[in-house]
């Protein structure tokens, strides 16, 4: 498989504009996260076409390539090719001359938090599995903390929560491009036993503050802190940049680390620490208020965000991990984030299983069964979400309905998860916990049964269209069945092609899209239209019309498979400004109007209006020639 991942990595890097266009490459549990210099160089169609890529999300110069559980192997392959860019922070380049909207700032903030918390997730998941083992030892074997093995395992399961500031300091330093070791040292000082002892002793005597260089310092502990550290390391990155410029290079090596740590110790203890605690307290109070006013709705509200906002801001849920870690560290359980994950991960697993059993498409079945296993037992739902739900849409509706309904039931039952990672059947015992909360565990099992039944019933009732899992073009639209089949119909007649619109002829090599320019979809030509009418370049039968109306596939009586693609990357318009006048099965003649588009809509969205005519099965012809005149392309058998 190594060679496959190498080829996959190469294709993705090329689609993102090459190594020279990348400034940072990291990953989370299911996504390759990349920062690019110039988003305009990204060939989204090419990346989506790479075998193994489930989806692609681009927000400014932040790119997420969704690949599911193969991410570890893929990242290693990418790391070998990009070298020092892997795991390196910084390099964020704002999109030029593009004013930001309020949502852009929200998206940027959530993306920043997600990028900081994502690398910590493996530690949290490992702690969750250890908690499952502890539950088994306690419930089924009667082993408790008096046993040294149990006690040591318990220490490992809790260490990630206590030392969370150290982990977050490291990932924040990577994100903000500052000194990781100094950031971790700053966090370690806040967790140092003598500081904890001082706080506990003086607060027990009624003291709230101590003096540090004449400044008041709040007596508080920082185990499990997240926001405080992120704020501190962000400030550290700014001071680090200043010191790099201000300190002469001859003494910078030893003077900068000393001054940076000294200054940050003051700022953290007197400003960012208390401020971060204040932000955390107010946010916690807000969540608690919602829980008191409508405890049955709190989890459902989070699920609604996951299933709606998550479509626009994929991965943003990682930004909410501090809520769960804080709850587990302070009260011993989480009744929000893990429960929302529980509803939104197991539900897709059952949907994928229902789809696999219902579909008649072998291609879809090969995707659905592994996706079901990934979600139900691996806690990773992206293969279902991006490989099934978003593609066929109707399963997404089932996902949304069942997940929200389950969340409402979980809220009514006041479900709790006693460690992080309770969103797969593998870790279902986390709902029992070491203290044997059988009522809570029973409720979790009831909800699993509800998700299974509801997912299967709604999937069967609402149904889905699995025809899109035939061979696809670069935008995910179906190609004629003969494309990619081993026993293809051999073309029987010569074909001539007219311009699909009035305008200036564009040679294949001059088309702005690399997929077309390189002939990946067969020999082609383009036209820069002077008006909004699109006509058929050949006579034949309409094989497919894209749901987004940006492409029409026509098959001639002689066996030519012809794609008429309206605009470059026009799929992102989602049919806005586009209209089609034919449907599958219609007969058309050369020059017959088949579609139209609004040039104003295209131009406002920055979409290239070039119309491309591609002979998909061109390799089955003896020759394909281009010429001037009424017929601009001739295919000879």
Q: Which characteristics define this entry?
A:
50% helix; four-stranded antiparallel sheet; seven-stranded antiparallel sheet; alpha+beta; 637 residues
Could you explain the architecture of this structure?
The strands form five sheets. The protein has a seven-stranded antiparallel beta sheet. A four-stranded antiparallel beta sheet has the order 1-2-4-3. It has 637 residues and is α+β, with helices and mostly antiparallel strands. Strand 12 and strand 13 form a beta hairpin. The chain is built from 20 helices and 19 strands. It has helices at residues 2-15, 44-49, 71-82, 102-117, 121-141, 148-162, 164-176, 180-191, 193-204, 227-246, 249-293, 298-312, 321-331, 337-358, 362-378, 382-392, 394-413, 438-462, 514-517, 599-604; strands spanning 22-27, 31-36, 55-59, 62-66, 209-212, 215-218, 495-497, 503-506, 524-529, 533-535, 540-545, 551-555, 561-568, 578-580, 587-588, 593-597, 608-615, 623-626, 633-636. The protein is globular.
Major sheet characteristics: 7 strands, antiparallel
What's the Cα radius of gyration?
29 Å
Helix fraction? 40-55%
Shape: globular
Strand line-up of the largest beta sheet: 8-9-17-13-12-11-15
Separation of the first and last Cα atoms: 39 Å
Structural class: alpha+beta
Q: What's the tally of helices?
A: 20
Tell me the β content: 5-15%
Mean pLDDT: 82
Give unreliable regions as ranges.
88-98, 311-315, 471-488
Instruction: Count every beta strand, where a strand is a DSSP E run of 2 or more residues.
Output: 19
